[in-house]
Amino acid sequence: EFKPLVFSGVQPTGNLHLGNYLGAIRKFVALQENNDCIYCVVDLHSITAQLVHEDLKGQIRSIAAAFIASGIDPNKHIVFNQSAVPQHAELAWIFNCVARIGWMNRMTQFKDKAGKDRENASLGLLAYPSLMAADILVYRATHVPVGDDQKQHLELTRDIAQKFNIDFMEHIRSAGYGVDMVVGEEPIHAYFPPVEPLIGGATPRVMSLRDGTKKMSKSDPSDLSRVNLMDDAETISKKIRKAKTDPDALPSEVDGLKGRPEADNLVGIYAALSDKTKEQVLAEFGGQQFSVFKPALVDLAVEVLSPITAEMRRLMGDTAHIDAILRDGGERARARAEKTMREVREIIGF
Ligand code: ADP
Ligand code: NA
């Protein structure tokens, strides 16, 4: 049996938004109760799409501040930045040799981020899922809370673990590591666990406020497309009031949201922020116009986000404190990651 362990990461690029909060960070907070958790600012990933950053250090600190302001306890759990633990990159190299080029070529995020000029995308952008697999498996983590945009990458993580386990099965056994388990129907002796994605929730994917068919994203050029965690109440209000909608009233049944992506998205956001189901939200607002629903959503969003924003601002003013948390988290993460890497090097035969 593998010991349950939660791992997840967020990139230090651009402003954190409501999608990151509802799709990821809020789950990180909830999982602390009953699990050992490792939460990482994945700075090595942030140079895959854009090499040079204006203030990478400041961005790293701001993600750490968001974690802590949202309620993650860096003393009971681990908060650190990826580049402080070189074992991630070491295992990623090994996984580059385990994974097949065809697996990487199928990743939809690579296709989206590389755009039309694929030949000119960085090699790191193509190999990104290998590093993500290493981030998780260097701790032999079993559970990964992420938004639904990461589902395909997590399936690849399972494929990499599976191929490593099978290719090295005799070495793993003779070195005295790993556990007997059944994957599908196959009994195997595994060193890396099969990772379980934790994707559920009312809104596994929060969509853009300007286009209900695109996900809310840090890289969207329109700032009106997302509510940022650092937005003040007035800005949140403006963005939600301007959010694209259709002219109809809200339906009273979830079925009535079909074909209305913008309405569906706003109802989903309301449900997630209030810990209700979409059914419950529509029981309250069905038949109402957006002129009634949007102000209610603004109030709710401000109520949930403003304490987090205030605490983030406070923490960002105390960089020595944030740096101390990251340093301490990095040391604890490194000790665990090195234990895995000693075993992996032995399994491979280095
Ligand atoms: P982005 O996709 O905005 O660049 P990251 O890749 O750093 O953000 O993602 C950080 C976490 O937030 C991941 O778990 C990702 O799945 C989640 N996430 C990002 N955007 C959304 C969204 N629009 N809805 C739900 N979850 C999201
Ligand atoms: Na993402």
Automatic annotation (TrEMBL):
Catalytic activity from the UniProt record: tRNA(Trp) + L-tryptophan + ATP = L-tryptophyl-tRNA(Trp) + AMP + diphosphate + H(+)
PANTHER family: TRYPTOPHAN--TRNA LIGASE, MITOCHONDRIAL
Coiled-coil portions: none
UniProt-annotated binding residues for L-tryptophan: D135
Motif residue range(s): 'KMSKS' region: 215-219
Keyword Repeat: no
Broad EC category: ligase
Intervals of motif 'HIGH' region: 12-20
Protein known as: Tryptophan--tRNA ligase
Keyword vocabulary terms for this entry: Aminoacyl-tRNA synthetase, ATP-binding, Cytoplasm, Ligase, Nucleotide-binding, Protein biosynthesis
Known EC number: 6.1.1.2
